[in-house]
Design goal:
The complex is a heterodimer. Chain A is 33% helix and 31% strand. By secondary structure, chain A is α/β, with parallel strands linked by helices. In chain A, strands 1-2-3-4-5 form a 5-stranded mixed β-sheet. Chain A has one domain: Transcription Regulator spoIIAA (2-Layer Sandwich), CATH 3.30.750. Chain A is built from 3 helices and 5 strands, in the order ββαβαβαβ. Chain B is of the alpha/beta class. Chain B folds into 2 domains: 124 residues, Response regulator (Rossmann fold, 3-Layer(aba) Sandwich), CATH 3.40.50; 178 residues, Histidine kinase-like ATPase, C-terminal domain (Heat Shock Protein 90, 2-Layer Sandwich), CATH 3.30.565.10. Chain B is built from 9 helices and 11 strands. In chain B, strands 2-1-3-4-5-11-9-10-8-7-6 form an 11-stranded mixed β-sheet, sandwiched between helices. In chain B, β9 and β10 form a beta hairpin. In chain B, α6 runs antiparallel to α7 and α7 runs antiparallel to α9. The chains are: A alpha/beta, B alpha/beta. At the A-B interface, α2 and α3 of A face α7 and α9 of B. Chain B: It comes from Geomonas propionica. Chain B: InterPro entries: HATPase_C_sf. Chain B: This is ATP-binding protein. Chain A: Pfam families: STAS (PF01740).
């Protein structure tokens, strides 16, 4: 799994992390490093390229989001049907809000 | 086959299940109609030759209306297996079932949906004390693929094989593949890292760590797909999962998410919710089998409660 941080988007200052591949026990170091990198009141997580997320991955996301939530609002983008079902049943949506991805502004 | 008794709240409740249970042989149906004592008397009188082998209890009756029902029934029929039946959308809370050691719950729709359990089959299996396995969930003649794991790296290879067996176009197949790979992941992780326990019950391996199977350790993952139904089964020879522990984990995760990231057994909870039917069979200290079935066209909502069958197998002396 890799994350790509950026500091803002076109509309408001925010932090952005794109998650890729399988999210599981091997993602611990990356996910646990994210909270310290959050500098803005809004954090966007993009799951478009995230694959399977197992129970250990869910546990790590919950831990990561709990730490961030005290200082920023968390928005989740690019969720697949599987991700949405999984997050709903495991309480992830109590910490982070799923949002529709904004269409790219015309160049 | 042992006799089956079914207890309902009233005639309306009984009528609701009549068609579903019409194929069940050796069935004695009783309605409580506000008088539990006389119903229990009638139950005893109906079994003058032998006590029922299986007692079916409508969720309209238990646990909300008669929370003491199972305790009283166990005193009368100590050898019976108990099955709670519920309609979709009004499943009972798990905590009372856990307290009363209920190990079988079937939740079904009034009009049968893909993924629903067929109650006559469930009762036949319970009455004969036969655990579920991969073959029993699939059409006759379906190929069952089995893999014995030798190291943790086998996990991704086995999941890839499962995905290849589920090749096909369309949203349903894509969703089935995604559910299947997550189910396989959880089953394999539980067997490789959850099941192996040291003498004091502490886990022997850390999740995600590379490991080889121990010389006496046997972990076998089996699956089959008959074109409509996917059946999965993971067997290990640790037998370290206690039947009550399974329901405890499900209840813990279903209760709420106040301490969500501290919850144990989340993997089992995910397996339970993503399968249409969830089966656990344990021979303590010898063998644990966890699995179930999932229909390609399943309309069951993974965020809603499921039924379960948790069996503690007797070990012949």
């Amino acid at each position: 799994m890799i994350t790509i941080p950026t500091s803002n988007d076109n509309s408001a200052a925010c932090d952005f992390f794109a998650l890729e591949g399988t999210i599981d026990a091997h993602s611990e170091a990356l996910l646990m490093a994210i909270p310290a990198r959050v500098k803005h009141p809004v954090v966007r997580f993009d799951f478009t390229n995230a694959g399977r997320i197992n129970s250990m991955g869910v546990a790590l996301l919950l831990r990561c989001f709990k730490e961030i939530r005290s200082k920023a609002e968390i928005r989740l983008e690019g969720l697949s049907q599987m991700h949405a079902m999984l997050f709903k049943m495991t309480g992830v949506f109590l910490l982070a809000t799923p949002v529709e991805r904004k269409k790219e502004a015309a160049a | 086959m042992k006799k089956i008794a079914a207890l309902f709240l009233d005639e309306t409740d009984r009528a609701d299940w009549e068609a579903t249970m019409s194929e069940v042989a050796e069935l004695v149906c009783l309605t409580v109609d506000g008088n539990l004592a006389s119903t229990l008397d009638a139950l005893l009188q109906s079994g003058t030759d032998s006590e029922p082998g299986v007692i079916v209890i409508s969720a309209k009756l238990y646990p909300a209306v008669y929370p003491e029902l199972v305790v009283r029934l166990r005193a009368l029929c100590p050898g019976a297996e108990f099955l709670v039946i519920s309609r979709d959308g009004c499943a009972p809370p798990l905590r009372p079932l856990l307290a009363d050691r209920i190990r079988h719950l079937t939740i079904s729709s009034t009009a049968e949906q893909p993924g629903d359990e067929r109650l006559p089959e469930v009762l036949n299996r319970l009455a004969r004390r036969r655990p579920w396995d991969t073959t029993s969930c699939l059409k006759a003649g379906t190929t069952v693929h089995s893999f014995e794991l030798s190291c943790s790296d086998d996990k991704e290879r086995v999941i890839a094989k499962l995905e290849r067996v589920l090749e096909g176009q369309g949203e349903e197949m894509e969703l089935l593949r995604q559910k299947a790979s997550l189910l396989a992941d959880e089953l394999l992780e539980n067997a490789m890292y959850g099941a192996p326990r040291a003498d004091r019950g502490t886990p022997m391996f850390t999740k995600g760590a590379k490991r080889e199977m121990l010389p006496q350790e046997i972990i076998v993952f089996s699956f089959g797909f008959d074109g409509e139904v996917l059946a999965l089964d993971l067997t290990d020879n640790w037998g370290s999962l206690e039947p009550d522990q399974v329901l405890e984990y499900l209840a813990l995760n279903a209760d709420g998410f106040q301490n969500a990231d501290e919850c144990g057994g989340r993997g089992l909870f995910i397996i339970w919710r993503f399968l249409d039917q969830f089966h656990v069979s344990v021979q303590p200290g010898r063998r644990t089998a966890v699995g179930g079935r999932l229909h390609l066209a399943s309309t069951l909502d993974p965020t809603a409660p499921r039924g379960f069958h948790i069996i503690k197998e007797e070990i012949a002396a």
